[in-house]
From TrEMBL:
One term under GO cellular component: endoplasmic reticulum
Keyword annotations of the record: Calcium, Endoplasmic reticulum, Glycoprotein, Isomerase, Metal-binding, Repeat, Rotamase, Signal
Domain PPIase FKBP-type: 64-156
Species the sequence originates in: Rostratula benghalensis (greater painted-snipe)
Catalytic function, reaction form: [protein]-peptidylproline (omega=180) = [protein]-peptidylproline (omega=0)
Top-level enzyme category: isomerase
One Gene Ontology term of the molecular function aspect: calcium ion binding
Residues making up the signal peptide according to the UniProt record: 1-35
Coiled coil: none
Keyword Metal-binding: yes
UniProt-recorded name of the protein: peptidylprolyl isomerase
C-alpha cells in the first residue's frame, strides 16, 4: 500500500513536544511496506552531498528527534520534480520525527547527523524508496532512484510518548479523555503566553480526536496515542 502526501496544515511549532506528538500528521512522503528487502537492498546506500554547513552545527539530528525541513524531490532518470514542500500546506516547512518510518527509509537515513541550517542533496536508491512497485499517486515509477534537496530548519528533542502520555493521563487509566486533553491544551497555551481565540482550543481538540481516536470510543488509548511503535506503555 502506498503512502500519501497530506494536504493539511502541520501543527504550529509553539505547542510543546507532547502536544506535537498528538497533532503530528504523517508528514512528507510516508513509506510504503517494503516487500523486496533482499540482499541487493542491503548493499545499496544513500549518497549524501552537503551543499551548505553552518559554522555552528549543533545540535545534530538523531533518531527520535522532531525535525522541521523543506525539501524538493526529483526523479534521477530525467530530473523531473515530483514533490515540493513549499507548494504544500501554504508553504509551511514539514514537521516529522526522524528514524521512525514516517518517511521513506532513504530520507530517515539521509537526514541523520544533520544540523539546523544545513542543506543536503541526497540520492536514494529504489530499495530505500518505493522499490519495484513505485508510487503511482506520487508520480514515481517502479525502480526509481530519487534525488532530494533538503534544507533543515530545526532539530528539537522529539516527543517521548510515554512521558507525554502519562503527563496528560491524570487519572492513570491508560486512556486520554476529552477533558484530560482539553486541560493539557489549556496548560500548554498558558505556558507560551500567546493570545488565541477560544475557538482554536476547540478546533485542535477536535482535530486530535479525529486523527487519533481510531475506534471512535471517545478516548485515545495508549495504543492509539503510541504511534511510534514504542512498547513501554
Amino acid at each position: 500500500s502506498g503512502g500519501t502526501v497530506p494536504r493539511h496544515r502541520p501543527p504550529p511549532s509553539d505547542m510543546g513536544r507532547g502536544l506535537t506528538l498528538l497533532l503530528l500528521p504523517l508528514a512528507l512522503l510516508v513509506a510504503p511496506a517494503q516487500a523486496e528487502a533482499g540482499k541487493a537492498a542491503a548493499e545499496e546506500e544513500v549518497k549524501i552531498e552537503v551543499l551548505h554547513l553552518p559554522e555552528a552545527c549543533s545540535p545534530k539530528s538523531k533518531k527520535g528527534d522532531l525535525l522541521n525541513a523543506h525539501y524538493d524531490g526529483f526523479l534521477a532518470s530525467d530530473g523531473s520534480k515530483f514533490y515540493c514542500s513549499r507548494t504544500q500546506n501554504e508553504g509551511h516547512p514539514k514537521w516529522f520525527v526522524l528514524g521512525v518510518g514516517q518517511v521513506i527509509k532513504g530520507l530517515d537515513i539521509a537526514m541523520m547527523n544533520m544540523c539546523p541550517g544545513e542543506k543536503r542533496k541526497v540520492i536514494i536508491p529504489p530499495s530505500l524508496a518505493y522499490g519495484q512497485q513505485g508510487y503511482a499517486q506520487g508520480k514515481i515509477p517502479p525502480n526509481a532512484t530519487l534525488i532530494f534537496e533538503i534544507e533543515l530548519y530545526a532539530v528539537n528533542k522529539g516527543p517521548r510518548s510515554v512521558e507525554a502520555f502519562n503527563q496528560i493521563d491524570k487519572d492513570s487509566d491508560k486512556k486520554l479523555s476529552e477533558l484530560e486533553i482539553s486541560q493539557y491544551l489549556k496548560e500548554e497555551f498558558a505556558r507560551d503566553g500567546k493570545k488565541r481565540h477560544p475557538s482554536v482550543h476547540d478546533e485542535i481538540l477536535a482535530d486530535i480526536f479525529k486523527k487519533n481516536d481510531h475506534d471512535r470510543d471517545g478516548f485515545i488509548s495508549a495504543k492509539e496515542y503510541n504511534v511510534y511503535q514504542h512498547d513501554e506503555l
